[in-house]
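Table 4 source record.
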Amino acid sequence: MAVVDVQNINGEKVSQIDLADDIFNIPVKSSALHEVTTMQLACRRSGSASVKHRSDVKGSTRKLFRQKGTGRARRGDIKSPLLRGGGVIFGPDPRSYYYKVPKKLKSLALKMALSSKFQGNSLFVIDKIEFERIKTKEFLKVLDALNMKNALIITDKKDENLELSSRNVPGVKVLRSEGLNVYDILKYENLILLELSIKAIEGRLLK
């Protein structure tokens, strides 16, 4: 079993906890992490880029001048893509970039992301972080005590005081265990797990 020290919000060791090797200490393959991260980023794309084609432009369909006899190039209506203000020929239309990867690959990549943090000594366990009120200054004191500036904090349940106290702090994100994902784990330098969230993570991934 992987063993990690449990600290309090002052950075002092209070106990130790065993982490499941099947989740926090498996071989890491960059190809699996890359595939799942790419999928996540693709699914976040809005795909809203759009242009007006010839049929979408407002204007008359009257032919601007006769086909022959003027000495000029033949011309259709004013909505022609060749004219300024006309439709766009091969511009983008709204589309979805959403796609899926197999569930087993997604679960394996999440385990690998957690393992990469443990093996890189970037995974920390805190017994609890509790605030009586929403106060960013109190949250910054905790980060200073832990000597961290860039971290992803995983909680076991909704904690409005913690979430709102941290939302204006750059380089920090608070996420509930059910929302844990590969991209956010890899994005932040450190991973902080509240002690109670570990059971929720193991219950999700040990199936």
